[in-house]
Write a structure and sequence with these properties.
Rossmann fold; seven-stranded parallel β-sheet; five-stranded parallel β-sheet; 32% helix; 15% strand; binds 2-keto-D-gluconic acid
């Protein structure tokens, strides 16, 4: 009996390949044009665009399984119209992504990456207590934009740093307010009060460009922006201007728009800009759990069974 045909958008990590071995026939995305009509599964690994047009070209498609929680690159409505379930991997990556948000926050506030560059460089020949003063983290004010699963984990971590925690969310979260010392604020209030602003919202039409010129203007000149959500939540041009003109203190981002940034982008030359290459969930343990859940979603969909974790 032939194995179900699955298309993937790039070479998969060995642990995922091991899980799929003997169960499916894997085809790489560029080879998609041949044999499209027999593709039964779509496994999205590195956020490829899956639009209505692509879905329409796959008449036998039974399931889309995404390696990751964010599905902004997939046209969910188009999949639903065709009755194709879409699986994702929420929850299991909350801790790793919240850790990453804290790592970026600490790095930016205490100039860690800049300090590392300096400590390795040729000009570090004397210790000087006057150099590279950062901004305090403990007892500062944190503003979390998007108090969902990851944002809540960020709040839990911030408690240990004695931070005052504000949050902004589409809906107020009384159940979280009951167990964590978080206070609801309007976006304007949060932007004006927070020393550290952490973005943990999904990318949707409402959150695209959420932080632009007007929002940077409302922030304190000592504020630091941390983005572990999606690049397009922040207007890149406005961010560049805010950092260049020192309208805010710093930014530390795990995601950019575009991603990656062009190698000659002015942001990459700024000392007050810290960037990582989308590492939010990139730990061995979390990525293993993501591999298992995404493969379980894929296999269930191929068998016509309910997905363990279905987003649409
Ligand atoms: C992954 C992510 O790195 O889950 C998400 O939405 O952005 C990350 O956890 C990504 O999905 C894998 O490409």
């Amino acid at each position: 009996m032939s194995l179900p045909r699955v298309v993937v958008d790039g070479p998969l990590a060995p642990n995922i390949l091991r899980l799929l071995e003997g169960q499916v026939e894997i085809h790489l995305w560029p080879a998609l044009d041949a044999g499209l009509e027999h593709v039964q599964g779509l496994y999205t690994y590195g956020h490829p665009r899956v639009d209505a047009e692509l879905i329409a070209r796959l008449p036998e498609l039974r399931v889309i399984s995404n390696f990751g929680v964010g599905v902004d690159h997939i046209d969910l409505a188009a999949a639903t119209r065709r009755g194709i379930p879409v699986g994702n991997t929420p929850d299991i990556l909350n801790g790793a992504t919240a850790d990453m948000a804290m790592a970026l926050l600490l790095a930016a506030g205490r100039r860690l990456v800049e300090g590392d560059r300096y400590a390795r460089g040729p000009t570090f020949v004397h210790y000087d207590p006057g150099y590279m003063l950062g901004r305090e983290i403990h007892h500062s004010t944190l503003g979390i934009v998007g108090l969902g699963r990851i944002g809540t984990e960020v709040a839990r971590r911030a408690v240990g740093f004695d931070m005052t925690i504000l949050y902004h969310n589409r809906h107020r979260r009384p159940e979280i307010e009951a167990v964590l010392p978080v206070r609801y604020a309007s976006l304007a209030e949060l932007l004006a009060e927070a020393d550290y602003i952490v973005l943990t919202v999904p990318l949707t039409p409402e959150t695209r460009g959420l932080i632009g010129r007007a929002e940077f203007a409302q922030m304190k000149p000592t504020a630091t922006l941390i983005n572990v959500a999606r690049g397009p939540v922040v207007d890149t041009e406005a961010l560049t201007e805010a950092l260049l003109r020192r309208r805010i203190y710093a930014a530390a981002v795990d995601v950019t728009d575009p991603e990656p940034l062009p190698r000659d982008h002015p942001l990459l030359r700024l000392e007050n800009f810290t960037v990582t290459p989308h590492l939010g969930s990139a730990t061995e343990q979390t990525r293993q759990r993501m591999a298992e859940l995404s493969v379980a979603n894929l296999m269930a969909g191929l068998r016509g069974e309910p997905l363990p974790c279905r987003v649409a």
